[in-house]
Amino acid sequence: MFKEGERVELKHDVDRYPHFVAEAGEQGTVSYTHDDEHGGTIAVRMDTHIDGAEEWNNEVQWDAAIVNGVLVSANVLSARDLKRIDDGDNA
After folding, report:
1. Which residues have CB under 8 Å from 37's CB, separation 6+?
2. So where are the chain's domains?
3. Tens of pLDDT along 10-28?
């Protein structure tokens, strides 16, 4: 599970059609997490400006979803797209 304040990088492009595409390699900070019986939400505020994401404060968000009739949590969905990064602060 990702935690607020954690640094992450997009593993691949994340398409939020028709609004924007956040490109692979973009980095950001987990700005919000919420886990509940409905699967929760995770939001990442990206470091660089993403055209079209202004309405969402330059954040990419993952919400739980029903996939093939099964509730899949935001943690599982975001883990497909995100990887943790080390800022070098832990050296």
Report:
1. none
2. 7-84
3. 999 999 999 999 999 999 9
